[in-house]
Specification:
The protein is an all-alpha fold. It has a single domain, classed as Orthogonal Bundle (DNA polymerase, domain 1), CATH 1.10.150. The chain is 49% helix and 0% strand. The protein starts with a helix and ends with a helix.
Amino acid sequence: MWLDLSGLSEYRAEFMKQAVSGAELQDLETDDLTDLGMIKMGHKKRFQRRLKLLAHGLQSAFELSEDGSSEDSTSFSSASERSTGT
């Protein structure tokens, strides 16, 4: 699930319990995230940042660092650049 890939897996059960997925994600506001148990501001910011990347279809929303942890990418190369390694 997208939350797992975003390093927010602890909220997956509540999102599923409340039937929040797909289109509903883009409609969530800060208060909604709080209602879903997301209290930490850093987690809310990460969620919003990753959702914005997802909405733009950027693969970088899910890229992992070498140690396997998720990290935010500040460079946005095109899909052709990533596939050709340029």
